[in-house]
């Protein structure tokens, strides 16, 4: 029931609307009740409404509005990239991107692989059923 | 017509800006030397009488002319440009046919013919599509490419695909009442040979890629949840 992820300086968030959709950004300051100042290693620091952000579990240790160099060092130290890519949320996003970029030929190969896998599973199941019946 | 100059005329009156020349009318008169031409001819411009033309043959009134004056349509000199080939379609691309007898078949693109149509082959042994012409608009280009270097497609053009002209036989009365026996049109042997020649090296390069043969043999169809505008081909 209580909130687990808070808006704080150093909170890593995912942009869920707009030009920077899908990017991971860091909240470096709070402008007012609705807006935060956000920054990321590959973008110019700017403001964004909280409604455009989804907070993640990751935080980093930074002073208020750090220089770009400091920000990048802090992100390296906290290993944000790897933590994100190994989290279940991050892994799901990677899989979604991969699925969307599949070629027609890739989709065909995927179908063959699925059929093969389910065939193996069905054989095992049949074997177990037979053992159980006897 | 006067004799043509060896060098094209460059204007004696350069443009200051577009529409405004550097020299006035009187200056240009002087520059062109019109005063010298007049002086040579005694104060007036030389006048050449028209050459005597041979007398034109007397025209008779035409034997027949239509009752109403009908307007002739305007002359059209438009030459259509050759069809632009989509950048995604290169020789060896796998295409998905969208219409016609082979709807949904995945097919290998060979080359664009002079008429703008695409020359395409199954290969025949894999999915039953022969050497065929197909319109670019009825085709989805996938990003899968097949190696087409071993294939000789120089001899195929639009004339190769023209319908064979049949001689019309005049029917006698008796033959009207007989049932018309038409032979089923057989495909000439040389076309079959051409197909085999083109497909031979194609099939070899296709079998080099795992699953590609089965891919070309299968038809494409939209399943539930597939959104064409979001699919990457």
TrEMBL record, chain A:
Alphabetic keyword roster: Ribonucleoprotein, Ribosomal protein
Presence of keyword Nucleus: no
Presence of the UniProt keyword Ribonucleoprotein in the record: yes
Stored Pfam families: Ribosomal_L14e
Residue ranges of domain Large ribosomal subunit protein eL14 in the record: 45-117
One of the GO BP terms on file: ribosomal large subunit biogenesis
Top-level taxon of origin: Eukaryota
GO MF term set: mRNA binding; structural constituent of ribosome
GO CC annotations on file: cytosolic large ribosomal subunit
InterPro entries per record: Rib_uL2_dom2, Ribosomal_eL14, Ribosomal_eL14_dom, Translation_prot_SH3-like_sf
Family per similarity comment: Belongs to the eukaryotic ribosomal protein eL14 family.
Protein name according to UniProt: 60S ribosomal protein L14-1-like
Organism listed in the record: Durio zibethinus
Taxonomic lineage: Eukaryota, Viridiplantae, Streptophyta, Embryophyta, Tracheophyta
TrEMBL record, chain B:
Record-level Gene Ontology MF annotations: RNA binding; structural constituent of ribosome
Gene Ontology BP term (one): cytoplasmic translation
A UniProt-annotated Pfam family: Ribosomal_L6e_N
PROSITE patterns, per database record: RIBOSOMAL_L6E
Sorted UniProt keywords: Ribonucleoprotein, Ribosomal protein
Residues in Large ribosomal subunit protein uL6 N-terminal domain copies: 3-60
Chain segments carrying region Disordered: 42-62, 177-197
Gene3D superfamilies: 2.30.30.30
Similarity remark: Belongs to the eukaryotic ribosomal protein eL6 family.
The protein's name in its UniProt record: 60S ribosomal protein L6
Species lineage: Eukaryota, Viridiplantae, Streptophyta, Embryophyta, Tracheophyta
């Amino acid at each position: 029931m209580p909130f687990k992820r808070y808006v704080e300086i150093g909170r890593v968030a995912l942009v869920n609307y707009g030009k920077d959709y899908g990017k991971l950004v860091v909240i470096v300051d709070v402008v007012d009740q609705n807006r935060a100042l956000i920054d990321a290693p590959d973008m110019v620091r700017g403001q964004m409404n909280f409604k455009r952000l989804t907070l993640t579990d990751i935080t980093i240790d930074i002073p208020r509005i750090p220089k770009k160099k400091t920000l990048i060092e802090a992100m390296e130290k906290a290993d944000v990239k790897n933590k994100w890519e190994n989290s279940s949320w991050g892994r799901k996003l990677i899989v979604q991107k991969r699925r969307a970029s599949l070629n027609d030929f890739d989709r065909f190969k995927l179908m063959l692989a699925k059929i093969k896998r389910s065939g193996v599973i069905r054989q095992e199941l049949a074997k177990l059923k037979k053992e159980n019946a006897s | 017509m006067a004799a043509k100059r060896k060098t094209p005329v460059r204007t004696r009156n350069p443009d200051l800006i577009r529409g405004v020349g550097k020299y006035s009318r009187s200056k240009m008169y002087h520059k062109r030397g019109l005063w010298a031409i007049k002086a040579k001819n005694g104060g007036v411009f030389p006048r050449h009488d028209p050459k005597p033309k041979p007398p034109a043959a007397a025209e008779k009134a035409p034997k027949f002319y239509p009752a109403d004056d009908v307007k002739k349509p305007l002359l059209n000199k438009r030459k259509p440009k050759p069809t632009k080939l989509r950048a995604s379609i290169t020789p060896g691309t796998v295409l998905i046919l969208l219409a016609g007898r082979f709807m949904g078949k995945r097919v290998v693109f060979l080359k664009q013919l002079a008429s703008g149509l695409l020359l395409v082959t199954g290969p025949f042994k894999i999915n039953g599509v022969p050497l065929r012409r197909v319109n670019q608009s009825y085709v989805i280009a996938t990003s899968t490419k097949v190696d087409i270097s071993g294939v000789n497609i120089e001899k195929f053009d639009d004339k190769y695909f023209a319908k064979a002209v049949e001689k019309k036989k005049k029917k006698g009365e008796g033959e009207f009442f007989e049932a018309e026996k038409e032979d089923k049109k057989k495909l000439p042997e040389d076309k079959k040979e051409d197909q085999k020649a083109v497909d031979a090296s194609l099939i070899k390069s296709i079998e080099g890629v795992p699953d590609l043969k089965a891919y070309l043999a299968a038809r494409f169809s939209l399943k539930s949840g597939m959104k064409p505008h979001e699919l990457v081909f």
